[in-house]
Design brief:
Layout: H1 7-13, E1 21-22, H2 29-41, H3 47-69, H4 74-77, H5 100-112, H6 119-127, H7 133-144, H8 156-172, E2 197-200, E3 210-213, E4 220-222, E5 237-240, E6 249-254, E7 259-265, H9 274-280, H10 282-290, E8 294-295
Parallel strand pairs: 2-7, 7-8
Antiparallel strand pairs: 1-4, 2-3, 3-4, 5-6, 6-7
């Protein structure tokens, strides 16, 4: 009698034959994000969000240029998790590459001098790199940690963009074979960050498989589909979408932990990019909130004040 396996078990058996970890391509990661943000900003998403997406596209352009000239230090590139079950050294807040302050100046400069953006944004970007180093480090710790009340929501996307350049550069210098399995499927195997969303890829070698996407270092790692990326249960996982919206975007919700993350399908839209499309689909976040679900983790380009 032939035994029929469900899709999740088939994917689990195939785990060893597909790329377990997809490290970022430093030549394209921010360029593709900028292109996607700019395209989404033109799709009639409303003047407010459309303008913000165009601002974030310009920021991603600046990140692309900064990453092209940023060299990984030998100490940073040597960071490795000590053993399975422990966080990578790069995830320790005190191990930040101090050069992120210089990167901050690089990504803020083109925004500060562009008349296309509101005066308040230009003034923020002109003054932020000159802030005391101690204050910048305090903001970085708050953004990478859990102190929501210490975060400056207006400055956060720009500070995070500089940190992204540093961590993405480090991740791109690694090899998948050199990374240990941490035994913690819901966090990035490179920097220990929670995923922003997941994406089902269509490229050769990864077609039909789901990868979680790190918002800090842009690493992706495989997780079997129809599995909660927050608590890893496989029962009670449901999918939600906004009526009339793109079929490439859904929210994967868990009835056990009542959390959700978005999942994007390249087979429906080849251009989807986890950070950009997550930011542009705020209507789905509103729908999920009204349904009583909680977002499992945030987007690095959008921060709210704790009382918002």
């Amino acid at each position: 009698m032939q035994r029929i396996l469900d899709p999740a078990r088939i994917e689990a058996f195939a785990h060893r034959s597909i790329p377990r970890i997809r490290l970022p391509d430093r030549a394209s990661v921010f360029a593709q994000r900028a292109q996607r943000l700019r395209a989404l900003g033109k799709q009639g998403l409303g003047q407010s969000i459309g303008g913000y997406l165009r601002l974030m596209a310009a920021l991603a352009d600046a990140q692309h240029l900064a990453l092209a000239t940023f060299e990984v230090s030998s100490q940073a590139s040597a960071a490795r998790p000590a053993q399975p079950g422990t966080l990578p050294a790069a995830a320790v807040l005190g191990s930040r590459d101090a050069r992120w302050h210089d990167i901050l100046a690089e990504v803020c400069e083109p925004i500060a001098r562009c008349d296309e953006f509101p005066a308040g944004v230009r003034e923020l970007c002109a003054g932020l790199p000159a802030a005391p180093a101690q204050e910048l480090e305090r903001q970085a710790e708050a953004l990478l940690g859990t102190d929501a009340h210490a975060r400056d929501a207006a400055a956060a996307p720009f500070i995070m963009s500089a940190l992204q350049v540093c961590w993405t550069s480090q991740a791109a210098a690694l090899t998948p074979e050199g990374l240990a399995d941490l035994g913690i499927p819901g966090i990035c195997p490179v920097c220990g960050t929670l995923p922003v969303a997941s994406i089902v890829r269509v490229d050769h070698g990864s077609q039909g498989y789901r990868y979680l996407h790190c918002p800090l270092c842009a690493t992706e790692w495989h997780m079997v589909r129809v599995t909660c990326s927050q608590c890893q249960v496989t029962q009670g996982v449901t999918y939600h979408s906004v009526e009339g919206a793109s079929e490439a975007i859904r929210a994967e919700a868990c009835e056990s932990c009542r959390c959700y993350r978005k999942i994007f399908y390249q087979e429906q839209d080849l251009g989807v990019e986890p950070v950009a499309d997550d930011l542009a689909s705020l209507a789905l976040d509103l729908l999920m909130s009204e349904a009583g679900y909680h977002r499992a983790s945030g987007n690095p380009l959008l921060w709210q004040r704790p009382d918002a």
